[in-house]
Specification:
Blueprint lengths: L3 H18 L6 H8 L3 H13 L4 E3 L5 E3 L10 H9 L23 H17 L2 H9 L8
Antiparallel strand pairs: 1-2
């Protein structure tokens, strides 16, 4: 459902948050390794997240990416999804029809509308902090 860029962005932010909770900043190489993502791709997808204020970024020897601890539980997954994939993911047709509406629905429209709404609600509730804790506790994983 999410683009590959969005999947990498979510996993990267969760890893960065996990490191921030441990008092560390992390660099692109570490993030790429922790998420099984190509390093150049990680560098590219983190830039818009920094510009939107989801991440903090510092250049130089002591630089790296982090999440502000006072904001970590307020950053919801939907922010990452919208910054990476845009709002279309929550409105587009399951069959890719350009004009799929309640008046002219695709065969899956009514069912998929509920799925999209449930996805939006879930992404709006789940914080980066929640996800970082699950990975830190070994309940969830960012790579196989």
């Amino acid at each position: 459902m999410f683009s590959k860029a969005c999947e990498y962005a979510i996993k990267s932010v969760i890893f960065i948050a996990q490191e921030a909770l441990a008092g560390k900043k992390t660099n692109v190489k570490q993030i790429a390794e922790a998420t099984n993502a190509p390093e150049a791709f990680v560098a590219k997808i983190l830039q818009p997240l920094s510009k939107k204020g989801i991440l903090t970024s510092n250049k130089g020897k002591q630089g790296g990416f982090s999440v502000e601890l006072d904001k970590i539980d307020k950053i919801k997954l939907i922010e990452i999804v919208l910054a990476t994939d845009g709002p279309d993911i929550l409105t587009r047709c399951a069959f890719g029809l350009e004009k799929c509406t309640s008046e002219k629905p695709c065969p899956f429209h009514d069912k998929f509308k509920g799925i999209r709404e449930e996805l939006r609600d879930s992404l709006s509730e789940i914080s980066v902090y929640d996800m970082a804790l699950k990975t830190e506790q070994g309940i969830a994983f960012l790579k196989n």
